[in-house]
């Protein structure tokens, strides 16, 4: 079996800029220039200008090594990580990226890399173990079973080493696992954490998924909380550190050969931060390329880092071995004291240059000059020359097909997501109980308000039934909208993170959501109709009851689709709530009760044709009043003629509600599709195939020259 090569990520002259609102001097002057100026400014077209965040970065991240990105706040650490991981797509990128000398982009790196973001949004009702198992099921490890087993056994070895306690030491990269070039195997200088004991070997029949997640739980020290729900701000679950480690475990199990992590230790106590760093080191030791943004690492954490990239104002001021950094900074005039944390020292040196240090107005060099000196010193340094050599001569083995991240078949995704959604609903019964409560409450309320209407005088019946049926149509529609908006707005972030992380595709997610939600949108109106219909005293006829129920079901389904559309189109609930009245009040106005739609303003009359309330209300009214007789006097048909609800029959009106439901349902799907492609770029199969071909294909011309030179030298 052909061994997959370790992967080296290289970039050269990488720049990134975004469009920002121009700080328009003329405009601001106008604003300051009195009322007229303010009015003029309000109508002035917004101008945008480019803001460059990363300025021509050159560097490389080597396999089998833990690389940390350090730098002051705002120096571009997250932007660089996101750009490489393919999660930063809004701005303009220039420069080159390669994986093992093959031309790459952020999108192609996403096919190879795991990514842990700063905000790990995990479904709050899942337990830690379930969240990790989900990752194993939906994102099966990319390596073939043979090499995967080898990797697993290496993990066990490493865990065993870890368990040896102080002095046992973790296994150095290249000793076990994927073979590494000698130059890449960095020295290991870590002590193992005695708390990190491997889980007892599973007994009995254990599935691959259970085994893999048990292993990750053990490696990340999550045994104690493995059956605790993740929780959220309103329903406390695991701690912040445990959540971070769960997110890392979710990426670890995919065995992606590259891992990018944005501040995996922020918000953790010193011990947890050290533990996480040790675990990252252990992962890197298995030949993976691990790159993490770290904030102020302790000296123990600092010792675990192999390579460091220090950024200042979007520029590289150091990229190379951690061991050489302190001397490098000392040579620049910042000697590190014996008892000073080297990470703090480096940080202070850079911060000083950045303008946050003790630079006083009287000091001979200004902060800007110091920053320029640091950048200039880096350009002329030996470390930069060494880095350039690594950039010029990267790992050259092609990316192996088995190294690409895999995604489970759509049917597996659908089955898993449906089961998860059902479990989520069961564990979060408040949502369903509220819906049930609403159906019962409104059924009883309307029933008792209009109790025994059928025994009242004809004119009272006309008024009461009209009001009750209009209320039934609007409440069924609106409650469905609100329930979906509420549920989906909360889930939206989880969906974005998981779909970007390659857990599943949109079709499986969308379908699973419908499989769980649609039955609820059918059962609730049945409950509402069963209570209200008989209390109201609507016509005692089984078929008419069924038609009334069918109308309420159609309105609920339509409300569900509208809610889904709104929640997927607007970014937060407050925007949805602002849009809701603007969209729906015209629907209510043209619902058939408030305005005689046949005689309303001509150029606004079309609104009735897109109002689901109008169709639903008309179906209910015709169901009640067609051929309706009170005390031997037929009153129904004349009344229907007077209020002019249109020519369509009951069945056709119900069908129109369903057509509107279907159209909005499709719009909701398209809106989600737009959301996904906005964040992750186009993910078509053809695109993916092209990106893979580039990574598996021949070397980029940038490196072929080097190959020829090498061959000539050898000759
Ligand atoms: N989309 C954007 N629009 C405008 N400015 C942006 C955008 N993205 C990033 N920036 C700016 O680019 C700079 C770098 O941001 P980035 O988040 O990469 O910094 P960072 O080094 O990770 O900071 P921190 O350590 O505080 O997280 C910041 O000044 C930020 O305001």
Q: What is the CATH topology assignment of the largest domain?
A: Rossmann fold
The best one-word shape is: elongated
**Helical amount:** 40-55%
Low-confidence stretches: 24-34, 144-203, 356-362
Mean pLDDT: 79
Give the number of domains. Answer: 2
Tell me, what is the CATH class of the largest domain?
A: Alpha Beta
Bound molecules: adenosine-5'-triphosphate
Side-by-side strand order of the widest sheet: 6-7-8-3-9-10
* Name given to the CATH homologous superfamily of the largest domain: P-loop containing nucleotide triphosphate hydrolases
Largest sheet: 6 strands, mixed
Count of distinct strands: 12
Percent of sequence in beta strands: 5-15%
Distance between the amino and carboxyl termini: 31 Å
What's the total helix number?
25
CATH architecture of the largest domain: 3-Layer(aba) Sandwich
